[in-house]
Design goal:
46% helix; DNA polymerase, domain 1; mainly alpha; 4% strand; hpI Integrase, Chain A
């Protein structure tokens, strides 16, 4: 099975021999992705669904199934069994969540194809998704542990990056916001008088207002007064937290930054 990282290669869906077939996988999957874009799905969602749809198409073509109209409920159930019995490189089976993320795009694709009269019926309408286990986090930090982690930020750093990091950690802890939401946070999204923060285009591309504590706001004010001006390059788009390369953080870099402080603690 292709690895998840291959989604960034934008490999066409469907083999070259059937790529021009208007009823084939390539044409219909591209139409499906275009429809999602028109419906304002995020580019990340579109690419993820394209990637997971490609997994199924490659599996289907190996079995001589070159058109969506050839897929039946029985074939989809067979694919589910294939996922259940599949073993990764380390010999472990797929998790229920991994199986689900491969099946959800299929359900969405066939639902779209049936509604738009691309196929006669939706073979995925009665497909049951795996039940996910409901687990608590393995370890929830207590107050003392959180304080120890935050104390690792080097506030005496001449460039002010330690102070910036402390402001970010305080914001994470106070709001519980997602890393991508913090990465896109703007200075104008903060309301100091009301003690609130506006998350714009968060999960589901929805705006929401969340509370933020006075302590976190105090660290943000200090960061703004002492550090941010040295990290800005014009034109300034108002992004609150900036890297030493004068640009917004990526979610991956935020993850690494927090992990480094946890390891240090």
């Amino acid at each position: 099975m292709p690895r998840k990282g291959s989604q960034h290669e934008r490999k066409p869906i469907g083999d070259a021999q059937h790529r021009q077939n208007p009823h084939g996988w390539h044409v219909m999957s591209e139409a499906f992705c275009e429809w999602m874009g028109v419906q304002n799905y995020s580019p990340r969602t579109v690419e993820n669904r394209r990637s997971y749809l490609r997994y199924f198409v490659e599996w289907a073509q190996e079995r001589g199934l070159h058109q969506p109209m050839e897929i039946t409920k029985a074939i989809l159930e067979r694919y589910q069994r294939y996922l259940f019995h599949y073993r990764k490189r380390d010999g472990l089976p797929m998790s229920a969540r991994s199986m689900m993320v491969r099946l959800v795009p299929l359900r969405a694709f066939f639902k779209w194809a049936a509604r738009n009269n691309r196929i006669l019926y939706n073979p995925a309408s009665e497909i049951d998704l795996p039940r996910l286990e409901k687990r608590l986090p393995k370890h929830i930090l207590n107050v003392s542990e959180v304080e120890t982690i935050m104390a690792q930020c080097p506030l005496a750093d001449p460039g002010g990056l330690g102070l910036r990091d402390r402001a970010m950690l305080e914001t994470f802890y106070s709001t519980g916001m997602r890393r991508s939401e913090l990465a896109h946070l703007k200075s104008l999204d903060l309301d100091y008088e009301r003690g609130t923060l506006m998350v714009r285009q968060g999960k589901g591309r929805k705006d929401r207002m969340i509370p933020i504590g006075e302590r976190a706001l105090a660290w943000i004010r200090r960061y703004l007064d002492e550090v941010r001006s040295g990290l800005v390059r014009e034109p300034d788009d108002g992004t609150l937290f900036l890297t030493n390369l004068f640009e917004p953080f990526s979610p991956g870099r935020l993850t690494q930054l927090v992990r480094d402080y946890i390891d240090a603690a």
